[in-house]
């Protein structure tokens, strides 16, 4: 993952990723903030679920 702070940077990163579909399949830009530790953290629910997993407990037997 890479962090872009401008639209131009985001477009450049996406163009690079889309140019190498063997290594980056389905690349897209997602909103993020930088935490106190300097690591990106997701802003919206969809990305939080992708990073942290389901929003419900999966401990229950099916």
Characterization of the model:
The protein is an alpha+beta fold and 62 residues long. It has one domain. 32% of the residues lie in helices and 10% in strands. It is built from two helices and two strands. The chain has helices at residues 7-18, 45-52, and strands at 32-34, 40-42. It has a two-stranded antiparallel ribbon. β1 (32-34) and β2 form a beta hairpin. The radius of gyration is 15 Å and the shape is extended. The mean pLDDT is 87.
Topology, please?
Elements: H1 7-18, E1 32-34, E2 40-42, H2 45-52
Antiparallel strand pairs: 1-2
Measured between the Cα atoms of the first and last residue, the distance is: 35 Å
Classify the beta-strand content into a percent band.
5-15%
Number of helices: 2
Tally of extended strands? 2
- Helical content, roughly? 25-40%
Task: List the helices and strands in order.
Answer: HEEH
Low-confidence stretches: none
Q: Tell me about the biggest sheet? A: 2 strands, antiparallel
Shape: extended
Report Rg.
Answer: 15 Å
Structural domains: how many: 1
Placed side by side, the strands forming the largest sheet appear as: 1-2
By secondary-structure content and strand pairing, the structural class works out as alpha+beta
Quick synopsis:
With 62 residues, the chain is an alpha+beta fold. The protein has two helices and two strands. A two-stranded antiparallel sheet has the order 1-2.
């Amino acid at each position: 993952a890479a962090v872009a702070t401008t639209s131009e940077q985001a477009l450049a990163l996406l163009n690079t990723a889309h140019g190498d579909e063997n290594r980056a399949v389905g690349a897209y830009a997602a909103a993020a903030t930088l935490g106190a530790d300097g690591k990106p953290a997701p802003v919206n629910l969809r990305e939080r679920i992708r990073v942290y997993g389901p929003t419900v407990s999966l401990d229950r037997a099916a």
